[in-house]
Amino acid sequence: MRTDNREIKNTIISIYFILIILAILLATVFKSYNLVEGSTLYALIGLVVAVVIVHFIARFFEYDSDGSNVIITNSGLILTDVFNYRETKVEVAREQLSGYKITNYFFYRNLVVYVKHSNGKVTKENFNVTLLKRKKIKYVRQSLKKIIKENKSIKL
Fold first, then answer.
1. Helix (H) or strand (E) holding 43
2. How many CA atoms lie less than 13 Å away from 54 in the CB half-sphere?
3. pTM confidence score
């Protein structure tokens, strides 16, 4: 099964654009009316916080379980063609998957995949699935559950 959240990229770019326009507008309004001392600074700090939150949440997610390997990719949405510094990619054999967990926080969803290596060591890989639709998260959950069930039945 293959799934991703490719369609969300235009929405995130629009949100960045709206945040920048809003910051410029607020900075001008606060500076001209001078309602609160240092209000321009507060507007800029608010913008920086909003951009950091959007930057932290906005990640591209791709899941591919077709074939003998499971490929899970997480990368940034903005400037990924030039600077691909936020990419997390895991390509493992189906037999190496030992578990998964999807954690749903208020503004953030996290997928943790447990991978068992040949030496018996289990590592966990984290992926941001915040912008993945519920339906697609359900498909990923079903696919991972099926793979893990097959792995357990092979071991028995």
1. helix 39-57
2. 20
3. 0.80
